[in-house]
Amino acid sequence: MRNAIENLLAAQQLAMATRPKVGGFPYLAEVLRKAGVKHNIWQLPACQSVYITDAGPVVSVMPSLIDGTANIPNFDREGLIKAIRVDQAGGSTFIEFLKATWEAGVITYEVDFNERIVTYRGVHGEEYVEHYSQVEV
What we know:
By secondary structure, the chain is an alpha+beta fold. The chain has helices at about 5-20, 25-35, 75-90, 95-105; strands spanning about 35-45, 50-55, 60, 110, 115-120, 125-130. A hairpin with a 5-residue loop joins strand 5 (about 115-120) and strand 6.
């Protein structure tokens, strides 16, 4: 069996090379699920992502969305839903999606690949839960 990092990177590369521009997230999620990824937990604005996989946990860190110290935006459910819908329509890059999500007051979100649920959370415990469709890969 591959180690956790190699397995995750191979699944991400496959998904990014073959996913559709519109509705690409469910495809990416299914590729990761089939590769043994159970959960993915993002921390914003730091852009730290933890993957819980069958082969072991993996952390990935991208450049932060902010420099230094900043106020956390208020949780904006409508703004979050708009960011999700724009992304689903292929109208944003992943970084643009993360920025819009942060600007909507999301400090963490978790993807449950088995249940096909994404839970977005604000600093005061606010939540928005979105189910996504099963797709064939």
